């Protein structure tokens, strides 16, 4: 005889009940949104005024209590704490906007997250200079950017130093320095360090995609130099238009190389590593012209098939 299975349904009910209880406990343990203004006290009660009091009454009550609890006039140790609480309550109630927020929090205590967000926006948002925030953000982003680039660069250098090609180049340079005589003395290790320093520039050229970090390439510096970069770009575009669109001058070598790199989507650092003969051939083909580019691609396809 088959019995109905209630296990899965019971599990679903128990899970739903657990989530509901957890949610209720979270809501019950949330502090009252009013308490973020004057802690556990009521701002109006601290000043001894009603919620309907006008600004003059609030100001008068504050001055009276500040004289009563001022540490210079009241030696009681508790007076200092009361003085701070009264001053904080007055700061909240003297401003019309923050007082409205406080009244709203009293009337709607269940909207904890909304009231909290409004409080911090009012007290910290306008006090923070937007320019300082922007500068801090740029510095933070630039710092992470530089750290990331430096990590990649050092890792790439470390990998290159482990390659046989690097070690062979190191030995060759040592032999060249010593006239073909290998130095086996203690100073040999020190010589290696000097050779490594001389090879550093050559290593930087060999590592593509992990160039040495430069301050000028940081986002923050680029942002500060943005007006200069835009101005320089506009001047360059105007001169380009004048030379090659108006006066119809032939392209200079640098400008023809620039057009060739753009046509082939070759990065500038990769272009610099190409053989001069290859550069001359590519530039003379005038690949920025559509017909020449199509012919070049057809030649490359034929060459690829021939090699297969």
Structure description:
- The protein has 16 helices and no strands.
- The model is unreliable at 1-14, 26-30 and 185-191 (pLDDT under 50).
- The chain is elongated, with a radius of gyration of 37 Å.
- The two termini are 73 Å apart.
- The longest helix is centred in the middle third of the chain and has 32 residues, at 130-161.
- With 308 residues, it is an all-alpha fold.
- Helix 4 (55-69) runs antiparallel to helix 5 (77-94) and helix 6 (96-107) packs antiparallel against helix 7.
| Beta-strand residue percentage | under 5%
Question: Number of DSSP helices?
Answer: 16
Structural class: mainly alpha
Task: Return Rg in Å.
Answer: 37 Å
Number of strands: 0
Gap between N and C termini = 73 Å
List low-pLDDT spans: 1-14, 26-30, 185-191
Biggest sheet record:
none
The 3D shape can be described as elongated
Overall average residue pLDDT:
78
Protein traits:
308 residues; mainly alpha; 75% helix; disordered N terminus
Outline the secondary-structure elements:
Layout: H1 7-29, H2 35-38, H3 43-47, H4 55-69, H5 77-94, H6 96-107, H7 112-125, H8 130-161, H9 164-178, H10 187-206, H11 219-224, H12 226-246, H13 253-264, H14 268-273, H15 276-284, H16 290-307
Helix pairs in contact: 4-5, 6-7
Can you describe this structure in just a few lines?
The chain has helices at residues 7-29, 35-38, 43-47, 55-69, 77-94, 96-107, 112-125, 130-161, 164-178, 187-206, 219-224, 226-246, 253-264, 268-273, 276-284, 290-307. It has 308 residues and is mostly helical.
């Amino acid at each position: 005889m088959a019995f109905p299975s209630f296990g899965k349904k019971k599990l679903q009910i128990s899970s739903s009940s657990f989530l509901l209880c957890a949610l209720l406990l979270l809501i019950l343990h949330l502090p009252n949104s009013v308490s973020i203004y004057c802690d556990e006290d009521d701002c109006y009660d601290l000043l001894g005024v009603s919620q309907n009091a006008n600004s003059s009454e609030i100001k008068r009550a504050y001055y009276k209590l500040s004289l009563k609890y001022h540490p210079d006039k009241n030696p009681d140790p508790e007076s200092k704490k009361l003085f701070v609480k009264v001053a904080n309550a007055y700061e909240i109630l003297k401003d019309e906007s923050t007082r409205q927020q406080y009244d709203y929090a009293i009337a709607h205590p269940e909207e904890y997250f909304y009231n909290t967000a409004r409080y911090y926006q009012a007290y910290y948002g306008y006090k923070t200079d937007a320019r300082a925030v922007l500068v801090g953000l740029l510095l933070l982003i630039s710092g992470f950017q530089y750290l990331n680039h430096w990590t990649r660069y050092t890792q790439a250098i470390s990998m290159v130093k482990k390659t046989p090609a690097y070690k062979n180049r190191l030995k060759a340079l040592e032999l060249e320095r010593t006239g073909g005589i290998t130095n086996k003395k203690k100073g040999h290790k020190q010589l290696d360090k000097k050779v490594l320093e001389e090879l550093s520039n050559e290593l930087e050229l060999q590592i593509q995609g992990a160039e040495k970090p430069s301050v000028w390439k940081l986002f923050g510096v680029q942002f500060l130099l943005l007006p200069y970069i835009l101005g320089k770009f506009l001047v360059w575009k105007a001169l380009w238009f004048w030379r090659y669109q108006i006066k119809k001058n032939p392209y200079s070598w640098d400008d023809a190389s620039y057009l060739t790199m753009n046509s082939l989507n070759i990065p500038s650092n990769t272009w610099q590593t190409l053989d001069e003969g290859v550069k001359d051939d590519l530039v003379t083909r005038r690949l920025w012209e559509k017909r020449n580019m199509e012919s070049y691609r057809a030649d490359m396809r034929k060459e690829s098939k021939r090699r297969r």
